[in-house]
Amino acid sequence: MDGLATLPRLETVLERLEGSAALEDMQDIIVGLRDAFGVDHMVYHWVNGNGDQYGCGTYAPEWVERYLEQGYLRIDPVVLGCFQRFHPVDWKRLDWSSKAARAFQKEAMDYGLGNQGYSIPIRGPNGQFALFTVNHRCDDPDWATFCATKRRDLILVAHYFNQKALEFEPGRIPEQGQALSPREVEAITLLAVGYSRAQAAGELSISEHTLRVYIESARFKLGALNTTHAVARALSRGLIVV
Amino acid sequence: MDGLATLPRLETVLERLEGSAALEDMQDIIVGLRDAFGVDHMVYHWVNGNGDQYGCGTYAPEWVERYLEQGYLRIDPVVLGCFQRFHPVDWKRLDWSSKAARAFQKEAMDYGLGNQGYSIPIRGPNGQFALFTVNHRCDDPDWATFCATKRRDLILVAHYFNQKALEFEPGRIPEQGQALSPREVEAITLLAVGYSRAQAAGELSISEHTLRVYIESARFKLGALNTTHAVARALSRGLIVV
DNA sequence: TTTCAACTCCCCAGAAACAGCGAGGGGAGA
DNA sequence: TCTCCCCTCGCTGTTTCTGGGGAGTTGAAA
């Protein structure tokens, strides 16, 4: 935790981030950041609505591979917890009570992760979601000190890192050319809050058939296989809010 | 734009933000921030999916009233533009081409807004969306200098301001009932990605009826009226990740 | 040990959603 | 002007989902 002394000025870090020119640089940069902050691990983990993931960081490749293979995304308390939170969170404040979570934590530590963690959720339009995580092995007081002193720097670094990562991933930015029309949004929203088609049609004062046209149109635009899928995608992409 | 000299240390500003105790303080703080940054206006504008809005800032009350009355939220190029963006944006880079946008801009300036603006989008779970905006009247070079030098401070201030505003927001009740069982999570997740019940049952290697029991159980736990509603609620509450 | 929640399986009838065909009016932008 | 998208409405048949029953095993917590 003595990395604080050797941490380059934040300006320098951010400028290097802004000046980097290729996706491969991101891995180098995050290693540099990890060393600069003097922690065991630093990770950037991006998730989109389709379940695609991208990440770079300093976790052991074996752990990353296992994480992906086992679909740990769906049980990872860090992801699940941050997904519902607005702000950066210390891992200690997450919910580790379930058996699956404890097993996950134990396995992660077997692969070299530390006992402390701090994750910053980052969001974009259309449900874009990413995590910037710092992981370390140390006792609680040291960790609390680190978080308190480095919180602001980490927020800025996470922000800039995400910005840079997005520049190299044009395909990651969802095809937003298919925005839903206002009526489609209303229709999908009503279904998402539990209305049946007939009820939704009544609420919008249109025929049920017309409502159905909106649903079908929205389904097509969202590339959804059925109505439930369409509602889920609209929610994931932030096109509707319930 | 000479406010830069009088700007208190960022630490001081953030600490005052963290220490504020009541929603009414927010208005005082943002006025102080406006003066500290030496700009004409500074505004925090929070929007949720239901069309509810909350804001504080230094725009003329007449303008705010008119904005709300006319439902300008739906045509405001700043809101529309930032909603689709990941990162802070200069108003010059927004799309002002439509007739409605130009009329809106002209009217805003009649109410005392400056010609320059810089807005920072802020997002939370469940589509929470807020804007932190700086507005000023000056020429382009001065504005560019201001943005370049103050960008990082503004990002942090926006972040902390949003965090504080959310503490006072009663509408953001956690409302997490009982958690779903692992099987229920799997079932709901598969439906959310477009599987039919039969497909989902096949994927989980269980009978369709068993799958149905999970769906019904999840529906009950989530207080949902139908399957689509259950999927929407599970997504909104971050119980599943799609 | 008992209890309880989770997991697994089966039947049936009615309600709802799906998929495909069609049509016309209106407004904004090229 | 003309095109394209949005909004509105109708019909028919097939597939799927919903909601009401009941019943057995397992494992973990009380």
Overall description:
The structure is a homodimer of 242-residue chains. Chain A has 242 residues and is an alpha+beta fold. Chain A is built from 11 helices and 5 strands. Chain A has helices at 3-6, 10-19, 23-37, 61-70, 77-83, 99-110, 140-167, 182-192, 197-204, 208-222, 227-236, and strands at residues 41-47, 53-57, 89-90, 116-123, 129-136. A 5-stranded antiparallel sheet of chain A has the order 2-1-5-4-3. Chain A is elongated and about 65 Å long. The interface between A and B is large, with 50 and 49 residues.
Oligomer: homodimer
Name the overall outline of chain A: elongated
Largest interface, counted by CB within 8 Å of the partner chain's CB:
A-B, 50 and 49 residues
- Estimated share of beta-strand residues of chain A: 5-15%
Number of discrete helical segments of chain A? 11
Mean pLDDT of chain A: 84
The spatial strand order of the largest sheet of chain A comes to: 2-1-5-4-3
Identify the CATH architecture of the largest domain in chain A.
Answer: 2-Layer Sandwich
Rg of chain A, Cα atoms, Å: 21 Å
Q: Report the uncertain regions of chain A.
A: 1-6
Briefly note the structural class of the backbone of chain A: alpha+beta
CATH topology of the largest domain in chain A: Beta-Lactamase
Number of strands of chain A: 5
What is the helix content of chain A?
Answer: 40-55%
Order of helices and strands of chain A: HHHEEHHEHEEHHHHH
Distance between the termini of chain A: 43 Å
Q: Tell me the name of the CATH homologous superfamily of the largest domain in chain A.
A: Transcription factor LuxR-like, autoinducer-binding domain
Counting structural domains of chain A, the number is: 2
The biggest beta sheet of chain A reads: 5 strands, antiparallel
**CATH class descriptor of the largest domain in chain A:** Alpha Beta
